[in-house]
Prior knowledge:
By secondary structure, this protein is of the alpha/beta class. Helix content is 35%, strand content 20%.
Amino acid sequence: MKELELKYGCNPNQKPSRIFMKEEKELPIKVLCGKPGYINFLDAFNGWQLVKELKQATGLPAAASFKHVSPAGAAVGFPLDDTLAKIYWVEDMGKLSPLACAYARARGADRMSSFGDFICLSDVCDEDTAKIIKREVSDGVIAPGYEPAALAILEQKKNGKYNVIEIDPDYIPAPVEQKDVFGITFEQGRNELPINEALLEKVVTENKEIPESAKIDLLISLITLKYTQSNSVCFAKGGQAIGIGAGQQSRVHCTRLAGQKADNWLLRQCPKVLNLPFVDDIKRADRDNAIDNYIGAEYMDVLAEGAWQRVFKEKPAVFTDEEKRAWLDQMDDVALGSDAFFPFSDNIERAKKSGVKYIAQPGGSIRDDAVIDCCNKYNMAMAFTEIRLFHH
Length: 392
């Protein structure tokens, strides 16, 4: 297949629309089910690159949850403990395969943003992973292959209209890429710089110790940033992204946004949240929204007369700011990556509130000394990668 006609482009009025290969080459994908659209393919191809690089960098199966050409989550296939299995809503599924664990993590880090995601898998989709996908609201999945049982499960989703894409894992794109904007063609060399532990060798802080687990988290954050709309910052812990701040004009706003999401991830693990008395048969999306509202300032709206009864069997006690801060203060050993240098130490101050201890950023700001001093104040270890990872 040399080209594939699409229903429309980014919006219904943008027609005609298609994907195709120049020079009459074959497309490296097969659509096994459904009819993916323009944005679906943008998410699929960006996400495939991300998970492929995560697998190459860590040797572990990887998954990403993509929305509007930026990841909502990315992870490798570390096992889930009981708490994570519960907050990711897979505690009823028993022991999961490494790939299924990777997707549960990628989907679960920011469930609100992942609603209606496009799923990207580094390995052949197995039955465990397909069972998780079947129960979540998503637009489609891309993987290098599908076990027969997994494909049979996915083909049942959305009455047979769920988008399932198989990509050739050996496909290598041309070294130069192009895109048109306003009728003008832009051309550049592909960003094929490998992201590996060699980028973490230049540690510029007094604390030089970055353990192997933190190095994996830093690699996850950097590879995730490579495929996130810039400016962007990524918090990671335990083999997964836990907060991604994408597409902000100010770097500190990226850090605040990513930190807020990381805080939400930890607060979801607090017993006060884990034990919320939900009504029976509540939908998964309604449950996720209720948790985010309970954790956030919106909870006063939920407490309005009768409103809480739609989601809770009984009115939960308010989760006070003091209780939240006490729980968040337990967060530690979080890794943080930035796609460009930190221009001010305010980013470090915000990162500290979310338990950041390890940082990877390009360096090169005229205020590097102030940023390093702030890291030293908190005994953080920071590596200068000396590479920028802008993505547009």
